Amino acid sequence: VLNKPYGIGMIKSDRxxxxxxxxxxxxxxMGIGPPNIPVMxxxxxLLKEQYAANHLEIxxxxxxxxxxxxxxxxxxxxxxxxxxxxxRSKAMSQPAMMYRAITVGLPNPTSVATKVAIKLEYVHNSGxxxxxxxxxxxxxxxxxxxxxx
Length: 149
Prior knowledge:
By secondary structure, the protein is of the alpha+beta class. It folds into two domains: about 1-100, no CATH class; about 110-149, no CATH class. About 25% of the residues lie in helices and about 20% in strands. It contains four helices and six strands, in the order E-H-H-E-E-H-E-E-H-E. A hairpin with a 6-residue loop joins strand 2 (about 55-60) and strand 3. The chain is globular, with a radius of gyration of 17 Å.
């Protein structure tokens, strides 16, 4: 398990190859940030060598615009078992992951379940940054312009 910092992606991606909702993360981060920042797929061979592993792959990770845990595997069999657990929990509508948020001040104890999306917007002197969209269309989600969460 590694602590993945904010802004580090999993793979470099080309927008011309981006099709379908399953690659929303890759399409949302196209061309954002300095080109010299490595992605995790470029760092894996170094980690593999450093830890003398025969095999090393990313099983699960937070998205580019989140910091948090990244789960790696040294066995394709183990990777498949973990991914099967994620697929099973999704099929059973069970949460596979839990998230915690750091807030400034005390959060309001009232909680409301709501669906929102994440999209990228241009901010002067910062480039494109992720923002929460309270309203979005399904066509925008299908076009990978927003990612429902």
